[in-house]
Amino acid sequence: MSNTIEAKTHDDHGEDTWELAGRTLRSRLIVGTGKYADEAETRACLAASGAEIVTVALRRVDLKAKDNLLGWIDRDRYTLLPNTAGCYTADDAIRTLRLARELGIADLVKLEVIGDPKTLLPDNEQTLAAAKILVDEGFTVLPYCTDDPIVCRKLQELGCAAVMPLAAPIGSGLGIRNPHNLALIIEQSTIPVIVDAGVGTASDAAVAMELGCAGVLMNTAIAQATRPVQMADAMRLGIIAGRKAFLAGRMPRRMHAHASSPTIGLIE
Amino acid sequence: MPTIVLNGEPRPTSEGQSVADLLRELGLDARQVAVERNRDVVPRAEHGQTVLADGDQLEVVTFVGGG
């Protein structure tokens, strides 16, 4: 009997895959490729994370650079997700993604329009404007946005393939600042909710997954860990643990203690 | 001699030079870059027939590590 129960823990819900814009994915961790010491460290971290989608940025070519990311990254293994990091207007973001599309990448794009260099918080107005145009142009848009249920609802209505609310500012490592807002967004969304930015360590990733997110996108938490490859592995496990806990259904929170051992039959 | 602006820097170019010629001169693999000329994307299939003109603003970009 107990063997049957143990065997079932993995399989109660079938294989735990998820769908993103028609793709079936096994990994719920999306990772960035920035801030690593070198190509070797990037490769090792991507492998340890188990990610199937990785973000990249678009920049002017460096004529002195020996290696090009497109020259070494295994595109059969990783789907590239071009971002619009550094864009402060809808026009800049659209221009960037039109160029990214020319690089022969699928239409999946991460739209981020920043409103302020100090906080790097999203400009939701510009993000909504850009999302509308990009969806019309046939892009599959994954927008980074604030953890605002109204903005997320509007992005969904515009035809975005997912919404990617922040946990905390980019690169801050502050963790899930407003779990209640994320819960509201998850409750209302019919598209995947991916927490993007602000995760600092594996428990943050687990919390996001326990809330019911479809996935988590991170970069700095891995790249700036003391041992990035170990952290990439920890994040992979944190995502899995949080997801399993979500599926398992946590116990209710109680105000007072509730004994785990029988209260009758005590020796006297 | 016609002069273009390549990624923000002035660059002399020869009469009749195409985008494809320029990429070759720069030692770039056309499959690993995207080109924008005067704010319009130049599709890869048109690199050969797109001739650079004096004052053209070119952006030649690629993917780099990023979040």
Automatic annotation (TrEMBL), chain A:
<keyword id="KW-0784">Thiamine biosynthesis</keyword>
<dbReference type="GO" id="GO:0009229">
    <property type="term" value="P:thiamine diphosphate biosynthetic process"/>
</dbReference>
<comment type="function">
    <text>Catalyzes the rearrangement of 1-deoxy-D-xylulose 5-phosphate (DXP) to produce the thiazole phosphate moiety of thiamine. Sulfur is provided by the thiocarboxylate moiety of the carrier protein ThiS. In vitro, sulfur can be provided by H(2)S.</text>
</comment>
<comment type="subunit">
    <text>Homotetramer. Forms heterodimers with either ThiH or ThiS.</text>
</comment>
<keyword id="KW-0963">Cytoplasm</keyword>
<dbReference type="GO" id="GO:0005737">
    <property type="term" value="C:cytoplasm"/>
</dbReference>
<keyword id="KW-0704">Schiff base</keyword>
<dbReference type="GO" id="GO:1990107">
    <property type="term" value="F:thiazole synthase activity"/>
</dbReference>
<dbReference type="InterPro" id="IPR008867">
    <property type="entry name" value="ThiG"/>
</dbReference>
<feature type="domain" description="Thiazole synthase ThiG">
    <location>
        <begin position="20"/>
        <end position="262"/>
    </location>
</feature>
<comment type="pathway">
    <text>Cofactor biosynthesis; thiamine diphosphate biosynthesis.</text>
</comment>
<comment type="similarity">
    <text>Belongs to the ThiG family.</text>
</comment>
<feature type="binding site">
    <location>
        <position position="171"/>
    </location>
    <ligand>
        <name>1-deoxy-D-xylulose 5-phosphate</name>
    </ligand>
</feature>
<feature type="active site" description="Schiff-base intermediate with DXP">
    <location>
        <position position="110"/>
    </location>
</feature>
<feature type="binding site">
    <location>
        <begin position="219"/>
        <end position="220"/>
    </location>
    <ligand>
        <name>1-deoxy-D-xylulose 5-phosphate</name>
    </ligand>
</feature>
<protein>
    <recommendedName>
        <fullName>Thiazole synthase</fullName>
        <ecNumber>2.8.1.10</ecNumber>
    </recommendedName>
</protein>
<dbReference type="InterPro" id="IPR033983">
    <property type="entry name" value="Thiazole_synthase_ThiG"/>
</dbReference>
<dbReference type="InterPro" id="IPR013785">
    <property type="entry name" value="Aldolase_TIM"/>
</dbReference>
<keyword id="KW-0808">Transferase</keyword>
<feature type="binding site">
    <location>
        <begin position="197"/>
        <end position="198"/>
    </location>
    <ligand>
        <name>1-deoxy-D-xylulose 5-phosphate</name>
    </ligand>
</feature>
<dbReference type="Pfam" id="PF05690">
    <property type="entry name" value="ThiG"/>
</dbReference>
Automatic annotation (TrEMBL), chain B:
<dbReference type="InterPro" id="IPR016155">
    <property type="entry name" value="Mopterin_synth/thiamin_S_b"/>
</dbReference>
<dbReference type="InterPro" id="IPR010035">
    <property type="entry name" value="Thi_S"/>
</dbReference>
<dbReference type="InterPro" id="IPR003749">
    <property type="entry name" value="ThiS/MoaD-like"/>
</dbReference>
<dbReference type="Pfam" id="PF02597">
    <property type="entry name" value="ThiS"/>
</dbReference>
<protein>
    <submittedName>
        <fullName>Sulfur carrier protein ThiS</fullName>
    </submittedName>
</protein>
<dbReference type="InterPro" id="IPR012675">
    <property type="entry name" value="Beta-grasp_dom_sf"/>
</dbReference>
